[in-house]
Queue: 3 jobs
Job 1
Amino acid sequence: QLQASGGGLVQAGGSLRLSCAFSGRTFSSYAMGWFRQAPGKEREFVAVIRGSGDGTYYADSVKGRFTISRDIAKNTVSLQMNSLKPEDTAVYYCAARKAWAIATMTDQYDYWGQGTLVTVSS
């Protein structure tokens, strides 16, 4: 149901844009989140956007650098990542939660994409 894309290799200070395609007819019913998992670490919350697109929330580590958005007409959610740092290196996952409220815990999400690798070189 979820297909993430857009990862790659970028130098520190650079930008990448991740996209996640949602397969289904009730996209606006789902809050959409991005998480990431670095090697040897647990999966962590990055950003989330409400189903209606009118509310967002970010992890402190990415606030001011990353922007989450959604296109309800195209059934996609995006993560614009600017001023990337080596510590942003991870596999990034999009996730869907069939609820209106924002959530930051992995077990609060119902569906997960396959992940896309982001590597930031110093």
Job 2
Amino acid sequence: QVQLVESGGGLVQAGGSLRLSCAASGRSFSRNAMGWFRQAPGKEREFVAAVAYSGAITYYADSVKGRFAISRDNAKNTVYLQMNSLKSEDTAVYYCAAAVSVVPTTERAQYRYWGQGTQVTVSS
């Protein structure tokens, strides 16, 4: 059974940092691009960041560029999202996802496997 399990969410003050982790099990995702999405209450799920299978190529939403960093450790089958300089508008449930391709993409439809999400709350 394929599973993606996010962890590392929580409550943090504006300006603070959190590091999210996404551990995959059931199969290796070393040949898949991986991504992070988020969904705030009453809003659509939106793209945050993605990384190629090798880790060499990354994409970011404009709203998080320069503040967030995505990385991966294929030996551990784990993807990370380092979030710095957090703002209240970053408050959302954050989801990890595995794409069907090796190339990172911003399109939700290109992601086949999804985690259950982890809550990030930024207080102002």
Job 3
Amino acid sequence: QVQLVESGGGLVQAGGSLTLSCAASGRTFTSYYMGWFRQAPAKEREFVTAISGNGISKYYVGSVKGRFTISRDNAKNTVYLQMNSLKPEDTAVYYCAAAYGLTYSPNAYDYWGQGTQVTVSS
């Protein structure tokens, strides 16, 4: 069982930056790929980025490449999402999630956080 708690969301102007954190419970954190998803109002939850258990492999959706960076600190059981050059279309609830393997489908992730709101004003 893994429990995930996100933090760091907020309101930021376009062009600004935010860093989200996701703290995980449990002793098997390195066994999981960690992903970030987002869901805007009236839209489906979409994959944003994922990172392998050892932190070496990283994957991004095209719309955030070059602006967002995922990282993890396995000693702290925490995964981060550094978001730069934010755009109004990045506005959404951001969720972290854990899966045993690399997958882009939210249905394949086993554990989810409660989400944190990110709002980017124009």
